[in-house]
Amino acid sequence: MIRLPFHIVVALLLCFATVEPPVQFVDVTDEAGIRFVHHSAPDKKYIVESMSGGVALFDYDNDGWLDIYFVNSLTVETAGRPKSSRSELYRNKRDGTFTDVTDRAGVAHPGWGMGACVGDYDNNGWLDLYVTALGANRFYRNNGDGTFLEVGEKAGVADDRWSTGCGFADYDNDGDLDLFVANYVDFRLDKLPEFGKGTLCQYRGVPVQCGPRGLQGAGDALFRNNGNGTFTDVSDVAGVHDPRGAFGMGIIWTDVDENGLVDLYVANDAWPNFLYRDNGDGTFTESSFLSGTAVGEDGTEQGGMGIAVGDYDRNGLLDLFVSNFSEEYNVLYQHDRPFTYIDASYSSRAAESSFPLVGWGTEFFDYDNDGWLDLLVVNGHVYPQMDSARVGSSYRQRKLMYRNNRNGTFTEIAADLGRALLEKRVSRGAAFGDLDNDGDIDIGINDLDGPPMILRNDGGNRKNWIRIRLESSGRNRFALGARVKVVAGELVQKAEVRSGSSYLSQNDLRLHFGLGNRKDVDLIEVVWPAGGSVTRLENVDANQELEITHAGPRQ
After folding, report:
1. Which of 53, 56, 97, 89 is nearest to 72 (CA)?
2. 101 within domain boundaries
3. Residue 162 pairs with which residues in a beta bridge?
4. Sign of CA dihedral 473, 478, 484, 486
5. CATH number of residue 455's parent domain
6. Which residues contact 3 (CB under 8 A, 6 or more apart)?
7. What is the DSSP letter of 160?
8. Cα of 412 vs its chain's centroid, Å
9. How far apart, in whole angstroms, are the C-alpha atoms of residue 20 and residue 411?
10. pLDDT for residue 5
């Protein structure tokens, strides 16, 4: 037997003792008390039966804990019985479990739901909920007592087209929140396209649902807040009405040039994406080709679904990521210099693993708090027929988790982070936030044809972090559009507060920053919306949620 010297044995033991086990994402849906089940037709003969599934993480009751809203849908067969399916709101009980408060809150949404976003449109200090749908969208005003009042028609935002992504933002810097709604296809239940008929209703020789190619796009909508509880449709005047009828999906508001004016990015399915640059006069200029964010590097439009924004390479500019259809690739637009993006999908190693999958909900987030943004994409095909077609794809698909290598590249590591990420589902919406307030980011996923997934992050909080909640003194109380910079030694990070993200979903409005081994923050800089006033804080302790207002910080 070989005997090692004592000092070598001690050194080896110390090495093994300091190796941290990997972070694990654990499916806690059942133990959390989530009983929601998404309903959809098993055969998906019509495209409208494949696209639903948003999820929203937001604190509807202002108790400091994230609650969860799951959007449900109907089928062509049940469309005449809208109450046969309902969306559900779960209140966080602060002990790892949730309780269904849908009926008491009044947000069941008896209809063909698609997605959701939140914003305080009337500035009463409570987040309101907008739900997109096939047919009239629902706008739930938060009464501040645990209940909501549906005001879509009264407010003028009950767009009755097939709506998908949505998001609130103060695009005109007048202090109150406006609303953008993407629309998909002009789909009529009384004039259904015939399943599998024609070349546009086949995929690799297999008969499938028709669309979106071959169908008419529905056009998008921008609603300007009148400041009196109502909105005006200014889509035409603002230049975002999309007269050609693209197939709008995910949307995101982001200030791409950091000029204090929030810009708008729309992921389009089977159509070039849109980047609307805010001109500062109530109008926008569509600049996707000019900026390099319209198509992939081969010049071909893709099947855009979800969107993520974040500074993954820490060059001080926010990058764009768009999840796409199978046999294309998910595209990473690196923000190389102001308002100029390059397709870094392959050079970053984020493209090849996505090729056989259909991507949906996605987000840049620092799952292990090392100070570098990682990336998650949830997947699932639109054609159940793939399971029997023998074309190298499947209906249910696993998730992709990319760890940031800190050099402009990623490594796909889903297999290292627990079985839940490898479980094959038909995933759609995904939302990100710290559900248990333990200092790391958890994930809520809405899956078609079954229960959702609540993935608890176990171990991400071994490294240090800080979470920032903003409160504006103006009419935009939740500070949508604010930009925050956090400096901790060599770690310099940026993020924005935004409504609407991922695929038809809503992330936590609080901003989370991983700090690695740093136990304090040198500088926090907040650029407030509508005016650009700046708040700076220095020498802030790590591992806390910090509320920052115009009057100063509150812990």
Report:
1. 53
2. yes
3. 134
4. positive
5. 2.130.10.10
6. none
7. -
8. 20
9. 18
10. 66
Question: Position of tokens 């309902």?
Answer: 86
Residue 554, pLDDT score = 66
Residue 2 domain flag: no
- Strands 359-365 and 319-322: what pairing? unpaired
- Number of folded domains that form the chain: 1
Q: Which amino acid is at 180?
A: F
Token pair 């079954």: residue: 450
Helix (H, G, I), strand (E, B) or coil at 199: helix
Structural domain for 435, as ranges = 24-550
Report yes or no on whether pTM surpasses 0.90. Answer: yes
Domain-located, residue 88: yes
Residue with tokens 């176990």: 458
Q: Which two tokens stand for residue 396?
A: 């249910």
DSSP letter (8 states) at residue 62: S
Distance CA 155, CA 120 (A): 13
For residue 7, being part of any structural domain is answered with no
Q: Could you tell me the mean pLDDT of each successive run of 10 residues in the chain, 555 residues long?
A: 58 57 97 97 96 98 99 93 90 99 95 97 98 98 99 98 98 97 96 94 94 94 98 98 92 96 98 98 98 95 98 98 96 96 98 96 99 99 91 92 99 98 98 99 98 99 99 92 98 98 98 98 96 93 97 65
- Between the two ends of the chain, the Cα-to-Cα distance in Å is 59
Backbone torsions φ then ψ of 220, nearest 5 degrees: -105, 175
